[in-house]
């Protein structure tokens, strides 16, 4: 049975589409029939510089395959610029049906050495950028009573990672933002979901590879190309996912995952309330078996991708 994704002549914005996962998603989305707004400011991994060349390369790939694409080089990290990104879709194609919030930078540092400027820069691009672009598209989606948001979260936020307090906080915040959008815009037939991608790209090239264990992990990651994440993003933006919203998925080579979301796992009750001493004596022993280990993403996804 062939499933119609319903993407022919639909319009999608893909931020950070000048390379890596964003480029793979944009190309795959175009292959499914969508017209693409390629948003990319062409900066370095840390957010410095700027060039339209990466976006132009993506457009050339899409057009070579018979697709249509427009380029936008406005920053997602600015409210007014986000409006221009959405307006680019309207000016170029006259409509907007999906937004893929993929743009990102890295400024990794151990927490107690992290510069506040590096904290703010990462939050601005990832979390604020996802809000700004989504919020700019929201009135259109509300008016047409339909639309899809696909946001990039990360296991660095969902599980944890060393030296990425800014990135982890932003990515977990994106998961909460997506859930809020799903709740607030459900009445308008607007969907919002997250993907935690696994891929070797600029965003993962800074992962340490000093110890034998770290080197082994990097070797596994290098097998996971950006293209392995694209089908999930295209599905979530399509009509085939019209009943899917408020969820968190991951794609790792040939594996797909559905993540759970925080819910109470244990409870304790005391007539008349608690004192600190009572918590130590009664609640702590009851809760201890339910504590989550302080692990990192690599501890949880410890088996080789197949």
Automatic annotation (TrEMBL):
Start and end residues of each Ketoreductase domain: 10-206
InterPro entries (alphabetical): KR_dom, NAD(P)-bd_dom_sf, Peroxisomal_Beta-Oxidation, Sc_DH/Rdtase_CS, SDR_fam
Name of one Pfam family that matches: adh_short
PROSITE patterns: ADH_SHORT
The organism's place on the tree of life at top rank: Bacteria
Family: Belongs to the short-chain dehydrogenases/reductases (SDR) family.
Name of the protein in question: KR domain-containing protein
